Amino acid sequence: MSSSNLQLPIEAHANVTDLTPEEIAARTAAARKALGSDGLLLVHHYQRGPVVRFADKTGDSFGLARYAAASEGVRWVVFCGVHFMAETADILTGDDVTVLLPDRNAGCSMADMADIDQVEECWEQLAGICAGRVVPVTYMNSSAAIKALTGAQGGVVCTSSNAKRALEWAFSQGETVLFLPDQHLGRNTAFFQLGIPLEQMVLWDPFQPLGGNSPEAIRKARVVLWKGHCSVHMNFRPQHVDQARERNPQVRVIVHPECEFDVVKKADAVGSTDFIVKTIAASPPGTAWVVGTEHNLVGRLAETYPDKTIQTLSPFACQCATMYRIDPVDLMRTLEGIPRGDLRWPIRVPAAVADPARLALERMLALPPA
Questions:
Q1: Considering the entire predicted model, what is its pTM?
Q2: Fewer CB within 10 A of the terminal residue: the chain, N end or C end?
Q3: Which domains does the chain possess?
Q4: DSSP 8-class letter at 368
């Protein structure tokens, strides 16, 4: 839980608007250097460039989770991501490590679509209907409370990098999987990578009785998909793929598995943000790409590889609004505040939640490589 009652001294806010980008960068660099090996700055791929430049480690949620878990001798982890990522870092690091989120309002709309009370009700109803064992699989993009339920009920956390491995593991443990909160990652992974027919999946709407399904449909389902989605990846539509190919028949289309089914079906390649980065990096000069994922990452790829044509898939693409809350001033204030004890903003998950959540995360980390 974030310490929302903390307030920075007034002088910490004074005259910030008068600083130039160069002055902000210089102060940030000095504050980061002063922390030395006591500090670790983790930055998600979707962050803006002026924040990414100071990262000790960039990556997707899976890579950063592994890095946080393996880090030793660190006192302060500054996580430039969103709330559930900082929670995960707190769960996976020791009690002597303090995880800071530079903007306490940097959340995730997808994670908010799975309310713990609604998920607990769903779980109880599924247990009463399904004949075999139900295994929960929750996407990393979920609250610590959802991860705790998953761990307590013998389930596993997954990311877009290892969703296939997580589902394979889950089906080795039971007959039915409850996948939450992103319906698209669950559907795309189950269908395209495991070959499970769409007819063996049902969508659970938490605002409808039995999720909007009959008991018979639930009993026949192998996968129960929570009705959640990523607002950024829902901007990409099947017609955008068609239009890109009309403009350039040689273009390669690569998309994130949070995109809807019909977009993924038309793409040439599908994978996590880390997969997208590595695939484009490894492609030969002159390759043309359209990319179905967050705008900041696409723009940074285009700058990094000027020998390739890299464009966003949708003309209406946008950045992740909550990830974008963390700006260079937030990072500067966070780093400068640590020596003074002005902490922006500490994330601490209570032990009653952290312990079962850690079980689900450790099961994820123990999965074989994809």
A1: 0.86
A2: N
A3: 10-107+322-350 (3.40.50.10800), 111-228 (3.40.50.10800), 233-312 (3.40.50.10800)
A4: P
